[in-house]
Specification:
Elements (H helix, E strand, L loop, with lengths): L3 E2 L7 E2 L1 H39 L2 H32 L26 H9 L7 H4 L4 H8 L2 H9 L5 H50 L8 H31 L13 H6 L7 H27 L1
Helix pairs in contact: 1-7, 2-7, 2-10, 5-6, 7-8, 7-10, 8-10
Amino acid sequence: MLGNMYLAGKLPVTGSKVSTHSCSVTAGCAGLELLEILRILFWIAVFCILVIGMLSSIPAARALVAEERGRTNDERQAFEAFIQRVKSLSPAESSPSPGGIQIRTEDTQDRDGLEPVRQAYRETVMATPHYNDDYDESLETNLREEFSDEIAVAVVESGDFTPQLKRALVEKGIKSRKERKMLLQALDAEADELEAAQQLLRRIVRTCEAIQSRQLELRSYDELTSTWQRLDSLEANCIDCLYDRQQSIHDGHVLGHRRANSDTIHAYLYGDLDETYPILADGTRVFELVQDIKREITQLITTKD
């Protein structure tokens, strides 16, 4: 005699028969619970694989855009600092050359009033953390690219810091700062597009995973039809996402920043990646997933007829 046995929510019962039955019920419940847990874990794993596999391009693109934004902002701040440094310097009074900027002559060779300007440029524009990686240019070369040949020659070879040169440096510095600001705006717009597309595609993948986990072959005709219609709506969302991105690529953002030349933001950012159109790549994969499930459900609906 095993004595009194208790079943959850029940009064105590006695006897070996009841005890054996209770053990079998408990074991059966435990087995069902274990199977359910395993099934849930399986579909969680499937979902993770789907998300990682299908949405791999957009996360990489977002990381790249964030990095580029940080570099561009560093440059914008560097030019702002250079402008303020130049404004704080007092120019020498002298007669300008025909071009408006005095070039070194025999009378000015022994004077070097431009060393503070060169030092300011090195300590601001040329001191950004990524300067050597992205540019690796001498002061003269960088001045030619950012400002002009005339200004570069004046700063490197001239001796006097004239009012005309000061004004030209400030004006060109403001122009370079404005170009970085425009690029930042384009990068922010691109980051917003990437985030919106990723959120939409994730929701679609999550819905597809939930549908696939419901043992479709056991569903009724009405349930399958309803699910097919839901997938059809998701497919339309994918198409809209792909169309909007195609339109964005077509319109583009022409960049005046010399690092980008005249390329659009898309070519500028993603030209070196394996997939140069991250939203289109991930969006197409999700679109194909939706279509695959729709085909599966269509076949099941046919068998229900």
